[in-house]
Amino acid sequence: MSELSAPFAILAELTHRCPLRCVYCSNPLELVRRSNELDTGTWRRVLDEAAELGILQVHFSGGEPTVRKDLEELVAHATGRGLYTNLITSGILSDGEQLIRLADAGLAHVQISIQDSDDETGDWIAGYAGAQQKKRDLAVTVADANLALTINAVMHRHNIDRIESVIDMALEMGAQRVEIANVQYYGWGIPNRPNLMPTLDQLESMNAIVLRRQEELKGVLVIDYVVPDYYARRPKACMNGWARRFLNITPSGYVLPCHAAETIPDLVFDNVRDKGLADIWANSTALNRFRGTDWMPEPCSSCEYRERDWGGCRCQALALTGSAENTDPVCELSPFHDQVRALAESESQTREVALTYRSFSKTPETT
Ligand code: SF4
Ligand code: FES
Fold first, then answer.
1. Which ligand is nearest to the CA of 241?
2. For a substitution probing ligand 1, which of 234, 290, 303 has the most ligand atoms within 8 Å of its CB?
3. How far apart are CA 230 and CA 233, in angstroms?
């Protein structure tokens, strides 16, 4: 295996508490309770260790990270250690004053997720009345505070035909970048997959619009776009390769290579309560399990793309083939590829399936 380099960024999942119940939420089905969240002192130590390890960016996320009363302290601490800080927020709970205090603490960047350009559908997908308007309001404060803004828009069957106005909404909100994402079918996305899968026609139409708008908006708005997995011919380099560049730290302190890794049975994850981050990064059996290329089966192990896509996504291989060790079936060289395409086409035709929301009894308190 080649020499291990430092991770580039960590996703610090401060909490699973969140007022929204997005039907494609990638958080685990069993959420961490508030009483089991890492405390401020532990997070401060982890941020110190991240800086010492050579990590450059910390993305404060959740759940909804603005519910943490110590968020300003953590942003200030990370900034003081030279880390670039990003707040990934639903935009629901933060008020203008909190955002100004975060900017004063050194926050560099804000990412707000939107569910649609149509408020009624957006609120339906988020399971929260009035969500869309709150996001628009927060974007005004982000601009007033001179913070960089990225809008993250997750596309699916119910909003994909509005891709043009979703891009316009990002512009109106003052974003410099919009990530046009597609639903990733992990967590709550799996039970809702038949209701969210777009048709191939919808997808091709979105592709054409995004390509056109990327050209038109050069120098004004950066549009990041990834083709949805189920219709692709080659997999994405999920997380830029397992435990190569990124780390997730869960609200209770487990160190993961990606947000869905806990779905893979038999992996034992280390916890920052017990070990230092540098030790975990180098020696965690779970991080080393699919790191690099040595673990790969054929056709990946002899494939010319193996150091480009790193064999795709382990969590998706598990969800679709039953084993995380298989080639990501999005790859057309996988023996499961045709089944995945058939599944996408069949589910995209499913109609009148009710959305499945996380019940409030499963939602940790939001304050
Ligand atoms: Fe990527 Fe493996 Fe497919 Fe090659 S065979 S393109 S490495 S997923
Ligand atoms: Fe876990 Fe892709 S989400 S490897």
1. 2
2. 303
3. 8
Q: Which of 217-221, 243-247, 342-346 has the lowest mean pLDDT?
A: 342-346
Neighbour count for residue 324 (Cβ, 10 Å): 23
| Amino acid sitting at position 8 | F
Helix-, strand-, coil-residue percentages of the chain, each rounded to 5: 40, 15, 45
Nearest CA to ligand 1 atom 7: 306
Spatial contact of 141 and 100, defined as CB atoms under 8 Å apart? yes
- The continuous run of DSSP H or E covering 255 comes out as strand 255-256
Q: Are 256 and 250 in contact (CB under 8 A)?
A: yes
Residue 16 contacts residue 31 (beta carbons within 8 Å) = yes
What are the tens digits of pLDDT across the range 193-230? 888 888 999 999 999 999 999 999 999 999 999 877 78
> Is the backbone peptide bond immediately before 219 cis, with ω within 30 degrees of 0?
no
The DSSP code sequence of 130-186 is THHHHHHHHHHHHHHTT-EEEEEEEE-TTTGGGHHHHHHHHHHTT-SEEEEEE---S
Which residue's alpha carbon is at the smallest distance from atom 6 of ligand 1?
A: 305
User: Which atom of ligand 1 is nearest to 300's Cα?
Assistant: 2
